[in-house]
Design brief:
Distance between the termini: 42 Å
Strand content: under 5%
Mean pLDDT: 86
Low-confidence stretches: none
Oligomer: single chain
Number of strands: 0
Length: about 70
């Protein structure tokens, strides 16, 4: 909704800064500029790619890194 603030908090205390850095790295790799003036498709693309990479990392960790 317009005017609402994002109140999401990282599940791990202190991870916010690392997540912000990760978000900027992914955005740069995708050639996307983040911000409220950008289309939701561009901002969402970054979030989707972040999720994809975090799931891949978790799968590697759960599988002992064997792939």
């Amino acid at each position: 909704m317009p005017g609402e603030r994002n109140t999401n908090q990282p599940a791990v205390a202190g991870a916010g800064r690392a997540l912000d850095q990760f978000k900027m790295e992914v955005a740069n790799e995708l050639g996307v500029s983040l911000g409220g003036d950008r289309p939701s498709r561009e901002n969402g693309r970054v979030g989707g790619e972040m999720t994809k990479r975090m799931i891949q990392l978790a799968e590697r960790q759960l599988g002992g890194g064997i792939r």
